[in-house]
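Office hours follow-up: a student asked to see two folded examples consecutively, so here they are.
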Amino acid sequence: MTEESKMAEVEVHREAALQRADDFENPGLPPHRKRQTDLHPEKEKRAERVVFGWFLLSALGSIIAVAAYVAVPITPGDLTTTRFNNLFLGLGIALAMLAIGIGAVHWSKQLMSDEEHVELRHSTKGSEKTRAKAVEVFTLGDKESGFTRRSLIRNSLIGALAFAPLPAVVLFRDLAPADQVPTDVFAHTMWEAGTRLCLDPTGTPIRASDVSYGSAFHVMPEGIDEAEHPLDEKALAAVLVMRLPADQLNEAPDRAGWSYDGIVAYSKICTHVGCPVALYEQQTHHLLCPCHQSTFDVKNHCKVIFGPANRPLPQLPIAVDSEGYLIAQRDFTEPIGPSYFERLHDVDEDEHILVAGTTEDRA
């Protein structure tokens, strides 16, 4: 065999090796195996009753959740009542949701059509024929699921779904105030005339001489531990105290007497969503809220210079007593914390402007 014939034979074998095999024949779907509920009508009825029972149990769970929420009230300060309320409420809601899921799965496994079929892909043009086919598919799905025919299951499912939102409705309704919006809660704190500013959390009173330039003190009212709800009062009355060079304070005429020798006090509660404004930048004299980066300029009555907050931090008017301790002149002149639409109704216009005096007079 010549060299040319050998090369031709190798080329033939190579082309044969690269030739694709013919597509294999579609084997089709395996034979459908009927279930016991398909073969025996009595078992079909039994499965239908089981699904009905699960849906009925779901409705019962929703009722239990509502009843538990009402029958096990939460007593302020008693964590045991909170635990029991959450326990029974959670069990009722879990039973309602779980029973619907189990009933739906049992329905699909035992009663809905389980025959496999191949659905060929086609273009999705919204023609009359397509819409008619969609109606046909919907009708076929209704027929296979038995939703219309099996009235017992259908009605029990509708009942379970109707009861399921009741716990949420009761919970959300109870979040609203019983009588009216208590806006005055944010309008008044424990600060009043003569209340000393104390370090948080030690409760040590602060002398004006202790506040150095560039420092920031987290303070609370004196005697807050003796309040009926000290944590709630502390959350409202939290204040930051800082000292700046007096010539850097750009005080408005009606607030000239609210500071003491460059010492100013502002609410620690951000006016955006109530996060603690706890970051103080010594060089720029800016306060930063770490939650959403709202930035307040201490030199200019804590005006907002960046971020989503839309009003300045409320200022606490301060002075010093005869012993040199920092004291409050009065409470805040506007509600503290996040803005809300009733806020302006709570501002005490008669007491908003305080008379400014000299340092010696205020001491």
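And the second, which I mentioned at the end of office hours:
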Amino acid sequence: MKTRQIGKSGITASAIALGTWSMGGDAQWGAQDDEASLKAIHSAVEHGINTIDTAPAYGFGYSERLVGRAIREIPREKLVIQTKCGFWWRDDEGAVIIERDGKVCRRNLSRRAIMLDVEESLKNLGTDYIDVYITHHQAREPFLVPVSETMDALMELKRQGKIRAVGISNCSEKEIKDYLSCGEIDVLQERFSMLDQDKADKYLPVCQENGITFEAFSPLEQGLLSGKIGMDYVVPEGNLRNNIKWYRPELRRRVIEMLDGWKDLCRKYECNTANLVVAWTSAKAENLIILGGGRKEAHVLDYIKGGNIELEKADAERMNRDIALAGGSTE
């Protein structure tokens, strides 16, 4: 397994991290098979993935608790555990994001909320420190907490030894600069796939300039780029895939045709479609970590195999042309 440095923190992470969003088992994802998820986490670690990403937002702590169960027998120093703050449902303080599962969910990056969040996450995970602590959703009106207040709280947690590194997610370019003006940032976590390259193209230069590691979530567009979803697939009501434009029939057809056109590449590299897409994604930048989401062992193994494939330049260039034709370019 290839490795990456987490910013300037001195933490060494696997180039593929296990994302546990779908393990939350809330209304966004439907019924959860805990045993399958636990097997996926154990398989990830056995195959060289040392980095596990979770968040309180994933099932209102359910994913964190599941990760905590999975890592009980694994030496803590061998793992890089990431979780988040800023997604708040405990009271009515904060700017509303969404209402789901009977709870009103808000953006809250106040010092008070962060200090409560971190203690709850430590308890859920069964650990006394978090390797990378990430602001999940940035502050918005009518509860616009200053970045300086948020960073002061995070720096205090670093001094206390409760977190080792700071990350940010779902940010604007201005917000990234604001964070950098108040302290050290080691991770920027943003959406990136071959169909959605805008943020990577915009922010990777900023990350490289400031020694920040870019973590890419949704690299397979919630399964569409795995090659396993056809035109007959019906997105369940309430499922997150309804928010992804590429699942619309007219766009989905373009993607499926693009993937079908790469069958010869799959034969050449002795891989499946998901492996090929992960290989392309991993090659985007040297300071990029893929957040491979999934709740089955097979999903984990797809990411691992893809991360170990080295695409020839001509094949990568061909894929770039096909992506542009499908409408996935950044133009």
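Two things to take away from it. The longest helix spans residues 111-125. The mean pLDDT is 96.
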